[in-house]
Design a protein that fits this description.
Layout lengths: L25 H10 L9 E4 L4 E4 L12 E4 L2 H6 L3 E2 L14 H12 L7 H6 L4 H12 L3 H15 L8 H6 L5 H12 L11 E7 L6 E5 L4 E6 L5 H12 L2 E4 L3 H14 L16 H11 L7 E2 H7 L6 H9 L12 E2 L12 H14 L1
Parallel strand pairs: 2-4, 5-8, 9-10
Antiparallel strand pairs: 1-2, 1-3, 5-6, 6-7
């Protein structure tokens, strides 16, 4: 591997040996970007938030402002963050000529970044799928299909109008499509690993259901949020969760998300209304008491706010029970949809009254 420092007579910056093992800070990298310092080729890349493109530091394109850039160690991190490769400096080609099959597939991906690539497509081009997988793993640390998926998500992110998106802005904008949601979460949560060190990591992913996509957020042990994407309070719930836990949120999967997806599949198929996924909703002691009461309402039945207040031993707290019911961050599992007005009429539901009606009727049919 070439050294990252030069002789004393060289005009480029000198670095101590330790710098071979530790990436310089972003200010140093920005200076290298302005100077088009070739000593960083292959060791650092720059993502430009205003264009959604990532480049080599030596790219000949017009240089972005300091506040509009983010630096990454690898092309994989750039793709995970939702950036697409620059067509001018072609950062995916890296140092040295790539294997012919790698170059051909990269060119095909550049021509059609929104294509949903399958292994059969690779075979149809005359390549052996396992050979392609190994070649891309060696060069990029990810397989071609994963790279293609990330490129597709980066293209979806281009359609967002919020700029440097955050999950709250995505949710408030009502951007509910599967691919768009993944792109948003990737762009939002795909921070450089150096910025996530020392933080507890929560994972976020979407789950498709017959009545619309849901977002699930969990740590390694428990589910914290499960909501329909249209829910207006979702942004507030996410902010509350991040504040309460001091956690970063990354796009991905954890065991509780896999488990709740399987249990929701059984629920919507009418096989079971039981949920064993461990949950850890953020709330006050009173809210948690109400949520425990909600979980005791059997599928196929319903309760009133006054009945629920009496059931938890606080019959005068009907309004407070209503507020706690509305603050529930784990839909369906904590079945706030099973609470109706005193007259039996359906009352407000964050996921929409039509979903509340659907869920109640579904449970009555399958109870």
């Amino acid at each position: 591997m070439p050294a990252r420092f030069s002789a004393a007579t060289d005009a480029r910056p000198r670095y101590e040996l330790a710098m071979l093992f530790q990436r310089p800070n972003d200010d140093v990298l920005y200076d290298a970007l302005i100077a088009r310092d070739a000593s960083y080729d292959g060791f650092a890349y720059v993502g430009v938030r205003t264009t959604g493109i990532f480049c080599k530091l030596t790219c000949a394109a017009r240089k972005p402002k300091r506040e509009n850039v983010q630096f990454y160690d690898t092309t994989a991190e750039c793709l995970h963050a939702g950036f697409r490769p620059c067509q001018r400096c072609r950062p995916m080609m890296g140092a040295g000529a790539p294997e012919p099959l790698v170059a051909e597939l990269l060119d095909a991906l550049d021509r059609d970044p929104e294509r949903r690539w399958l292994e059969t497509d690779i075979v149809a081009m005359g390549f052996d799928a396992s050979t392609v997988r190994r070649a891309f793993k060696r060069r990029f640390g990810m397989c071609f299909l994963e790279m293609a998926r990330l490129r597709r998500l980066g293209q979806a992110a281009e359609r967002l109008t919020a700029g440097d998106s955050v999950i709250e802005a995505q949710v408030e904008a009502g951007f509910g499509s599967g691919s768009g949601f993944r792109a948003t979460v990737t762009r939002l949560l795909g921070e450089a690993p150096v910025k996530l060190r020392g933080k507890t990591m929560l994972k976020a992913d979407w789950i498709e259901t017959p009545i619309g996509p849901m977002i699930a957020i969990a740590d390694a042990h428990a589910l914290h949020i499960l909501e329909f994407l249209e829910r207006k309070a979702l942004a507030t719930e996410v902010r509350k969760l991040r504040t309460a836990t001091g956690s970063a949120i990354a796009f991905g999967r954890s065991a509780p998300i896999d488990q709740i997806e399987a249990e929701l599949g059984a629920y919507f198929a009418g096989r079971s209304a039981d949920f064993a996924t461990r949950i850890a909703p953020q709330g006050t002691a009173f809210e948690r008491q109400v949520w425990d009461g909600l979980r005791r309402i059997q599928a196929g039945s319903s309760a009133t706010y006054s009945g629920l207040a009496a059931e938890i031993g606080n019959p005068a707290a009907v309004r407070a029970v209503g507020r706690a019911n509305g603050a529930n961050p784990i839909a369906i599992v904590i079945p706030c949809h099973r609470v109706v007005g005193a007259s039996g009429d359906l009352t407000g539901y964050g996921g929409g009254l039509w979903r509340k009606r659907w869920l109640l009727e579904h449970e009555r049919r399958t109870a």
